[in-house]
Design a protein that fits this description.
single chain; 316 residues; alpha+beta; Rossmann fold; Tumour Suppressor Smad4; disordered N terminus
Length: 316
């Protein structure tokens, strides 16, 4: 059911702004965005993140204060943190909290699946006139520093090469602008990465191989427009699983266009699956690294699953 015009104006929204998002663009653009919100009569307040994972804390705090409408201002990493705040809190069921993203990040991949506009003027119109819907949420249990952790993801997770690149990205972010960082690292890491031997158990089936990359998607796009899980649907109750067996470095370079065209399944080393639960283990003692929504998390053993239609979002 479509919301009434300006219905959002009468709800209290909390905007959680990551000032570092988009290489600092979020902080620069916020005054103009705030002016637009005021002119539109939106009822809101704003808080700013100060450190990694702070957005998750701020989301949990907002919900504890009684706020049920949250806007992440930043990129996919900021959305990841706010969504984790929604699902980690115990004040109310996660389904009672409405979430959306005001995209000022580097990749802005999650919005592509839902066709949420990136232009700030068009976004404000969407924000006032949009309707609510639900999408699935993925969860991941992983190891870090010898301890077990759990994280939720709303878009795409990756293991093996994708986890390796995300780990390297964490090292570079303090020294290099985020602009084109991912693409730079994809090719730089290609010549450093050693493909681990992994076992993957999903829905009662087990495969083992040297997998170049393992991707798990709720939504379709990642890495600035790559379609590594082109068969992902955000509300079908399944995780889209893409397995890429060992390929040469030259082949990786040659098939890169397929990643953007959504045709990755054409390559004989690639297989596309769907699953509700996935378990990934290392078979050669070399840890398989894991990321979710572009954020490096940890390593194997990794277990993943899905919470069906559990995130309430705004869509055009």
């Amino acid at each position: 059911m479509r919301l009434e015009q300006n219905e959002n104006n009468h709800r209290h929204w909390r905007f959680i702004v990551n000032p570092a998002a988009g290489s600092g663009r979020a902080l620069k653009k916020w005054p103009a965005l705030e002016d637009s919100l005021k002119k539109a009569g939106i009822c809101y307040d704003v808080v700013f993140t100060e450190k990694k994972l702070h957005a998750a804390e701020l989301a949990g705090r907002a919900i504890a204060e009684g706020i049920r409408h949250l806007v992440a201002v930043g990129g996919d990493g900021t959305a990841h943190e706010v969504v984790n705040g929604i699902f980690q809190q115990t004040t109310c069921p996660a389904e009672e909290v409405t979430f959306t993203l005001l995209p000022i990040g580097t990749g802005n991949d999650w919005i592509k699946t839902h066709r949420i506009p990136k232009n700030s003027g068009q976004w404000l119109q969407f924000f006032q006139q949009g309707r609510t819907s639900f999408q699935d949420i993925g969860w991941m249990v992983f190891q870090k520093n010898g301890e077990e952790h759990k994280r939720y993801f709303l878009n795409v997770a990756g293991l093996s090469y994708d986890g390796y690149v995300a780990n390297k990205a964490d090292e570079y972010k303090s020294r290099v602008s985020n602009t084109l960082l991912y693409l730079f690292l994809v090719f730089r890491c290609l010549f450093q990465f050693k493909i681990p031997h992994s076992s993957i158990l999903f829905d009662g089936r087990e495969v083992d191989n040297k997998f170049y990359t393992i991707n798990i998607g709720v939504c379709r796009y990642s890495g600035g427009g790559l379609q590594l899980v082109p068969h992902a649907e955000p509300n079908d109750g399944k995780l889209a699983l893409t397995l890429v067996k060992r390929v040469s470095k030259l082949e990786v370079l040659l098939i890169t266009p397929l990643f953007y065209l959504g045709k990755i399944g054409w390559h004989p080393a690639v297989s596309l699956h769907q699953a509700e639960e996935i378990l990934v283990k290392s078979l050669d003692g070399q840890p398989v690294l894991a990321e979710a929504d572009g954020e490096f998390l940890g390593e194997t053993p990794v277990k993943m699953g899905i919470l069906k239609n559990s995130l309430k979002i705004m869509i055009p």
